[in-house]
Amino acid sequence: MSDIKSKVQGLEANVQARDIHQLVEKTGNIYETLSIIAKRASQISVDLKQELHQKLEEFAVSSDTIEEIHENKEQIEISKFYERLPNPVLIATDDYLTGNIYHRYKEEQRDDF
Predict the structure, then answer these.
(1) Distance from C-alpha of 88 to C-alpha of 94, rounded to nearest angstrom
(2) Closest CA to 20 of 7, 39, 37
(3) CA–CA separation, 19 vs 89, rounded Å?
(4) 66-105 per-position pLDDT tens digit
(5) Could you tell me the CA-to-CA distances from 43 to 17, 82, 104 in Å, in that order?
(6) How many angstroms separate the CA atoms of 106 and 99, rounded?
(7) 82: which residues sit within 8 A by CB, 6+ positions away?
(8) Is the dihedral of CA 56, 61, 65, 70 positive or negative?
(9) 60, 86, 88, 104: which one has the fewest Cβ atoms less than 10 Å from its Cβ?
(10) 102 vs 14 pLDDT, higher one
(11) Average pLDDT over residues 13-33
(12) How far apart are the first and last CA of the chain?
């Protein structure tokens, strides 16, 4: 994933009302637009999850007893950062509106008889 920190810089973490006409400009169909945004949001969500797990694996401690709990301030800060990030759908919508999403249609197979 390209640097998520710089990508979401200045992006509002709260939901905003959007102009449907602006969303439909590129595709001409609101359902296609929402499908594109949803697929991108799913990709972002998976990428964020993998990135977070990679960063938290550095702090993993294998011990035999469950009673031992270690608090690590760096681990807490990393977790808080990812909790404060905007929802992947908001990131994907911003990507769509700024033209940072490439989408194409699958070519239909035609049966020539």
Answers:
(1) 10
(2) 37
(3) 16
(4) 555 566 788 888 888 888 888 889 999 988 988 888 888 7
(5) 23, 16, 16
(6) 20
(7) 48, 52
(8) negative
(9) 104
(10) 102
(11) 87
(12) 45
pLDDT tens-digit readout, 25-52: 988 999 999 999 999 999 999 988 888 8
pTM of the model: 0.74
Both tokens assigned to 98: 């700024």
Residue-wise DSSP of 46-80: HHHHHHHHHHHHTT----S-SS-----HHHHHHHH
CB-based contacts of 41, cutoff 8 Å, min separation 6: 87, 88, 89, 91, 92
> What tokens were used for 95?
């990507």
Buried b (16+ CB within 10 A) or exposed e, 77-107: ebeeeeeebbebbbbbbbbbbeeebeeeeee
